[in-house]
Amino acid sequence: MPEPTIAQKAPVKVAVEAGKTYHWCACGKSQNQPMCDGSHRGTGFTPMAYTADVTGDKWFCACKHSGTKPLCDGTHKKL
Prior knowledge:
Mean pLDDT: 96
Keywords: 2Fe-2S, Iron, Iron-sulfur, Metal-binding
Radius of gyration: 12 Å
Number of helices: 0
Distance between the termini: 19 Å
GO molecular function: 2 iron, 2 sulfur cluster binding; metal ion binding
Strand content: 15-25%
Oligomer: single chain
GO cellular component, one term: cytoplasm
Largest sheet: 2 strands, antiparallel
Structural class: mainly beta
């Protein structure tokens, strides 16, 4: 599998709604970070669905290397 593009080395705060599904960009090429805009087509990557369990802020990974995708685990600090 190819390596994803690092969109930025910091997470992105997103206000999510309980029960709503979001599609996280796994390739790093989306212009709508951290969410998918379809830029992955032809790259071998597919977006990851995330359904919010509660309403509130979540920190989504933008470096695309988190061990807890799609949420940030601090991996960007080691890149």
